[in-house]
Amino acid sequence: MAELLRELKQTRLQKIWIPHQCERLQQRRGSSVPQFTNSPTMIILVGLPARGKTYISKKLTRYLNWIGVPTKVFNVGQYRREVVQTYKSYEFFRPDNQEAMTIRKQCAINALKDVNIYLTQEEGQVAVFDATNTTRERRSMILQFAKERGYKAFFIESICDDPDIIAENIMQVKLSSPDYKDCDREKVVEDFLQRIECYQMNYEPLHNDLDSSLSYIKIFNVGSRYLVNRVQDHIQSRAVYYLMNIHVTPRSIYLSRHGESELNLLGRIGGDSGLSPRGKQFAHALGNFVKSQQISDLKVWTSHMKRTIQTAEALGVPYEQWKALNEIDAGVCEEMTYEEIQEHFPEEFALRDQDKYRYRYPKGESYEDLVQRLEPVIMELERQENVLVICHQAVMRCLLAYFLDKSAGNEH
């Protein structure tokens, strides 16, 4: 053991292993559900149809789950489809259709009941209430529901008066809606525009003066302008930060591991070695692939480590280095094989198997730490258009978990 410690002290990272202590390891693992708030939060969408509310709901839910905040979307339209299984026409949404209005209100109430179950019995922290919520009366009902149960309420209103954006949304999303299955394209557009007019009749946007006590963000024309009011806490500020970074422009994001490194050949984790001969072949092949795709204005990102930089060099294009993209820090286990870790640190090896996501290498990082480190990368990716990210195995797992909508703990 003394020889091993001397070797560890001589590594580039100059890290010293501290012997196993149960309490220290328990603290390092953390709790099973990170608590970012003292009380649950309801995020309530507001806006006319075809304003991107469901898109916003899904994106925000994916992000919050990825950073470790248990979040779930409750789409009132799905509740309505379960009750009224055959959609006929926009007439169902007329404000003077009393029978339909009763059904729609009951669907909202049923969704709120499920929100309560999620936040009280299923360890949920954030519930996203995805509906139009275009009247002050409906929003008051939701606010009263939240207040009685001690939930915080945060509104997201999507306002769009650009006819081109609205038409694009209808064509991309509503044509595939279950409401219009097997319907003629022109009839779908005509019916949906009339549905919007039904909501427009009674639409009461959030008011700067009347609603000044509420917490909300208004998003104008899919991000051309924002108005933020009374952000209460960390969760709401994270949501605002995220929403101000996303866009709807179609683009391609490519994720690639670096070419095989010299330490990969030896089965050793971490380190900062260069590419092996086979790794250089991979880098050359990646360059040929990128050229064949003819991607306009492609940006290339790498970590600060040799193996990603050498992979990018083979592309013959400018690239940007991100320290945040560096491989997970294995601490005192850097440049060891898994067999060596199991032999010298058997308890650490077993603990990693029990909870790979929250396990933190001694003097190193956990996947949970890595997610926090990668958050600025995700924010910048959301702002960008076409990007190729050349990174490492653990980093790619975390990035893929975000884009594939995997919650914390499902990265590997």
Automatic annotation (TrEMBL):
Catalytic residues in the record: 258 (tele-phosphohistidine intermediate), 327 (proton donor/acceptor)
Molecular function per GO: 6-phosphofructo-2-kinase activity; ATP binding; fructose-2,6-bisphosphate 2-phosphatase activity
Which GO cellular component terms are attached? 6-phosphofructo-2-kinase/fructose-2,6-biphosphatase complex
Keywords from the UniProt entry: ATP-binding, Hydrolase, Kinase, Multifunctional enzyme, Nucleotide-binding, Phosphoprotein, Transferase
Annotated residues for binding of substrate: 257-264, 307
Q: Which residues form the 6-phosphofructo-2-kinase domain?
A: 29-250
Per UniProt, subunit arrangement is: Homodimer.
Q: Which PANTHER family match?
A: 6-PHOSPHOFRUCTO-2-KINASE/FRUCTOSE-2,6-BISPHOSPHATASE, 6-PHOSPHOFRUCTO-2-KINASE_FRUCTOSE-2,6-BISPHOSPHATASE 1
Describe the function of this protein: Synthesis and degradation of fructose 2,6-bisphosphate.
**Which protein are we looking at?**
6-phosphofructo-2-kinase domain-containing protein
Species source reads: Hymenochirus boettgeri
